[in-house]
Amino acid sequence: MAEFTRQRGKREDDSGLGSVLDLLLANARLVLGVSGAAVLAIATLVVKRLIDRATSPRDDDDPKAEQKTLEESWQDLALIKATPKPPKKQRREDLSAPLLSPARPAVPGEAHKLKVCTAPLETPRVEPSPPRCLTLQEKLLSHYSSWLAVPKVQASLTPQLAGSICTQLQNFLRSKCPELPFGSLFLSGPLLDGLGALSADHIHFMLPVVLDTTLWSLIPGEDTVVRNPQYWMIKRTDLEYFPRGSSPWDRFIVGQYLSSNALNESLHKMLVASINWPAIGSLLGSVIYPVVASQDLKLEVKHDQVELSITLFPMVEMEGRVLLSAPPEGLVENLWLESFARAEALKVRELDAGDSGARQLCLRILDSVCRSHPTLHKLSGSPLAHVVLHLSATTPDWAEESLADRFLQVLEELVSYLEKGVLPSYFNHKINLLGELLEEEIDEMGFMLYRAVSEPELLLKDK
């Protein structure tokens, strides 16, 4: 009786589970489609077999029954693996063709048409043309146009603003020191001389110191304490006939010599403490202030459109020489530096006018390269001009078409001068323009320029 009850309960359970499974399978085709319904039916059959095996009595003494159970389990697993899987649904964003509406029957031939249209047309790939290699001539001209061209506003505003400041300073000196016969201040510098890099931010104020030649004489540089032919001394003469005070410049005498240091110190005090620069700056629409910490006589000017650095140079013209109040560093006083800037500019312009040459263009590029290079910056300015003048004496062709050749020749000449450690001045061969450089600096410059002769692009990299 108990066995019968157990079997009856089992049939009822199986009947209830079967009813649920039948209902699920009946609706599977509507929900999952044909392939999905097939998979679900097989999986349901396997589950049902597993339930039957779990609920049926197990004969532990019959090894054949256990072997049969294992075989049926492997067959069920193989049956599941062999069942074809439903096609994987694609995401809508991955489809390149519109989906067919299930409510609309497919038209014959439409599938073929869709297959043709699903692959998007590829845009023809255009191979980029390789970059054109620029010649050295083109690189030099590009460097000039990119880095050295001064905007028209700055080129016109800078001289105008500097000229106005120069006039204000001139008026102050005449009112403050009427007894000192200063000449008329005038502008100088790369923008006006045309030899250096055309930067509109550096201007020189040249202040002539007018001396009575009967009371003053020049002492050659070789006879000075530094034994340098580029530095001169200005000696007060005939003190027994014309005692101190006969010349308005006697107040700046140290010993018997006109002291450049004493004159610079006096002018520096006036620039810093005596001139009302805020009022002058307000009048000119700018901010002007002197550089207090500098030993040079410098002004910094800030305008809405330009910024200027102005250096004041007292100068003496005697016996056809131009001497600047720019003594060497150290404790040596009374020395005046001979400047060839005016003679250099005049000579280079004269040579260019004679053969329509590009010496000035070459010098601007060279000066720009050296001025911005950490190793070569001490070669900028006057030394480059003298190399070009020396080379012009032996090489007549300076047309713009030969700019690259002349540029390389100047580099080669510089290397040869650095190897000797001597660059003679074009106007005075006794002067060595490399004389104030250290041996280590000369070696570094020579090595850098030696590399640049074979690879000039090293000097033309972007700043």
What would your notes on this structure say?
Pfam families: Mab-21_C, MID51-like_C. Residues 156-344 form the Mitochondrial dynamics protein MID51-like C-terminal domain. It is a single-pass membrane protein. The chain crosses the membrane at residues 28-47. The chain is 48% helix and 12% strand. Strand 9 and strand 10 form a beta hairpin. It has 13 helices and 11 strands. Among the domains are: 152-338, Beta Polymerase, domain 2; 342-459, Poly(a)-polymerase, middle domain, CATH 1.10.1410. The longest helix is centred in the N-terminal third of the chain and has 54 residues, at 2-55. Strands 1, 2, 3, 4, 7, 8, 9, 10 and 11 form a 9-stranded mixed β-sheet that branches. The chain has a two-stranded antiparallel ribbon with strand order 5-6.
